């Protein structure tokens, strides 16, 4: 698992579009002076367009360099990124070490710094420069210390056991359509890994909608049993 550092800032905004990203600021942060207009030259965090523009630029890097790097590295950049997070699994430690080096080099061609590497293999991590490892494992001994758990896209990766999990804190909500919708929507799972566990609640919610049960009407009987289960 790796991460592109400040990904959005590596992608320039076309000069003809920069007026859309104007803002005012006071010189030297002095509120008594007249504010000055600035324009952003790169895509900022928080703009709706930034993720898609940056992802396009990353994939364009592959197209521009496809003949210079192996198919595996190109495929990783095309298929194994979720915005700035690189999530990939391979069969051997040798393959993992090679792909880390080649994929990092490929991303560099587009001005992207792929870093913060994590692996469940101590041997693979030893091939990664300390400064390019994830912050929590830079000072760990690769000989006898357990690797800390990581998190990406709402999913916890228990590195030592190489397993995935969720930590869900369910708020106390009334057993109503509104409460069920609130709880099911609170599970952040863009990869869909938890979908089989949330599906029953969504099917129940669908059934309540079809029967025109009110938003704040307490459910009863079989519906309540299914929800509590």
From TrEMBL:
It comes from the Eukaryota. This is Reverse transcriptase domain-containing protein. Transmembrane segments: none annotated. Residues 3-114 form the Reverse transcriptase domain. Coiled coil: none annotated. It holds the Pfam family Peptidase_A17. InterPro entries: DNA/RNA_pol_sf, Retrotrans_Pao, Rev_trsase/Diguanyl_cyclase, RT_dom.
